[in-house]
Amino acid sequence: MTGVDHALAGTVFLRRGTGAVVAHRAEVLRLMVRPDLQSHAWGTRLLDAAVAHATALGLEQLQLSARGGTGIATFYTRQGWTQVGVFPASLRLGPDDIRDEHWFQLRLS
Ligand SMILES: CC(C)(COP(=O)(O)OP(=O)(O)OC[C@H]1O[C@@H](n2cnc3c(N)ncnc32)[C@H](O)[C@@H]1OP(=O)(O)O)[C@@H](O)C(=O)NCCC(=O)NCCS
């Protein structure tokens, strides 16, 4: 998505499940907004666009994960996502920085 200055404002990707068992769902990946443009609803617009695209593709649900310790769960739950579980100490960001991984789901149908 491009911002007001026509430079890249942010990104979001959908990765659809491969194989019949998981082809009805996709994972939302790399939702990122340029730091100087954050808190201006670009992240909400990007997530809305990903949901609209998934719906147009006929997908039934989306999943995503977020690192713990950021408070970002609020961003997703405000937009209707449900936190379905946490993998404790699942992410090693550095030698002394180990985080939980929070998983979210959005049912589309
Ligand atoms: C998360 C992200 C995509 C949100 O984009 P954004 O354009 O800032 O989001 P919006 O303006 O639509 O919504 C902002 C609101 O979301 C919530 N929020 C967003 N990021 C948050 C965070 N890290 N911690 C707590 N709340 C957060 C806040 O309520 C915020 O409101 P505020 O700005 O008034 O405090 C952006 O902050 C980002 O790129 N972060 C770094 C990468 C990242 O963490 N990606 C998510 C991977 S799961």
Number of helices: 2
Largest sheet: 5 strands, mixed
Portion of residues in helices?
10-25%
The helix/strand class is: alpha+beta
Which ions and ligands are bound to the chains? coenzyme A
CATH topology type: Aminopeptidase
Radius of gyration: 15 Å
CATH level 4 superfamily: Gcn5-related N-acetyltransferase (GNAT)
- The average pLDDT is 95
Please indicate the percent range of residues in DSSP E strands (runs of 2 or more): 35-45%
Along the chain, the helix and strand elements come as EEHEHEE
Low-confidence stretches: none
Strands of the largest sheet, in order across it?
Answer: 1-2-3-5-4
Number of domains: 1
Write the layout of secondary structure elements.
Elements: E1 10-16, E2 25-33, H1 42-56, E3 61-67, H2 73-77, E4 82-94, E5 97-107
Parallel strand pairs: 2-3
Antiparallel strand pairs: 1-2, 3-5, 4-5
The structure holds coenzyme A.
Coenzyme A binds at residues 31-33, 38-44, 66, 70-72, 74-75.
Descriptive account of the structure:
- By secondary structure, the chain is α+β, with helices and mostly antiparallel strands.
- The protein has one domain (10-107): Gcn5-related N-acetyltransferase (GNAT) (Aminopeptidase), CATH 3.40.630.30.
- Helices cover 18% and strands 43% of the residues.
- It is built from two helices and five strands.
- The protein has helices spanning 42-56, 73-77; strands spanning 10-16, 25-33, 61-67, 82-94, 97-107.
- The chain has a five-stranded mixed beta sheet with strand order 1-2-3-5-4.
- Strand 2, helix 1 and strand 3 (61-67) form a beta-alpha-beta unit.
